[in-house]
Amino acid sequence: MCVNYITVSRQMAFDWFRTPMELGEDWREEIYRDYQAPFIVHDEQGRRVLKLGSYGFVPQRHRPFQRLTKEEQAKVDLAVAAGKKAPKLKRITMETMNARAEEVGSKVNYKRFWLSQQLCIVPAQKVFEPNWETGIHERWALGLAGEGPFGLPGMWRTWEEEDGTISNAFTHFTLNADEHPLLRRFHRPNEEKRAVAILRPEHYDDWLSSKNPEFARALIELWRPEELNAYPAPKTNLPQKAQPETQPEKTLILTSPMQADLF
């Protein structure tokens, strides 16, 4: 699954996704959990509009607190009784940047929004996946063979904050990739291979306007190896603007089925 990706600029959103920019907020180019990033929805007139939301369906500040053991609760009670400030509770760990497309209709965090088809498109230039073929973790980038931005099928929701304001959060869908010649190369050995689904551009508005979960599910797919491009993308200490936008040609890994199947 992908938990880190490069999003698009305002100009790219307009040029590639026909989505005008009315937002005044800024966002980072490289997105991680709980970062603010753009996503695309339909407005009431069926026009594409851009929203800003937190990457991860359940942001950190909205995750439930961990349950305390009896001993831990007793210590908290003693501290409060003594007039001390209660220790800060820890929140449970939840990974909601990706939603498993096969299970989205049955998971408590997603079911209501999937059935109501609260769908979005997450624009991206490339996503990052872990490759373990050498026995150690290597960061790889995955994008389209044509090098252009693409849209991930996603889902969004709103949250009410403590100050009464409303915020947005989103996730995007993954599929099993155990049999995919290229995408099964990622993630740890002996683990299920998951990969991001990508929407066909001709399906963007069908996806955003869908009212039928089964219709929408048919649009969630893994692209063929020859349509994708994957290459090593180690992190650097250079500022993002100083990094090259494309990798040198010699680092590109051809993605034909024969070359991609290294297991």
From TrEMBL:
Superkingdom of the source species: Bacteria
Family matches, as SUPFAM superfamilies: BB1717-like
GO molecular function: lyase activity; peptidase activity; single-stranded DNA binding
Keywords, alphabetical: Covalent protein-DNA linkage, DNA damage, DNA-binding, Hydrolase, Lyase, Protease
Signal peptide (UniProt feature, chain positions): none
EC numbers for this chain: 3.4.-.-
GO aspect biological process, one term: proteolysis
Transmembrane segments: none
Protein family per UniProt: Belongs to the SOS response-associated peptidase family.
Entries under PANTHER family matching the protein: ABASIC SITE PROCESSING PROTEIN HMCES (PTHR13604:SF0), DC12-RELATED (PTHR13604)
Protein name, UniProt field: Abasic site processing protein
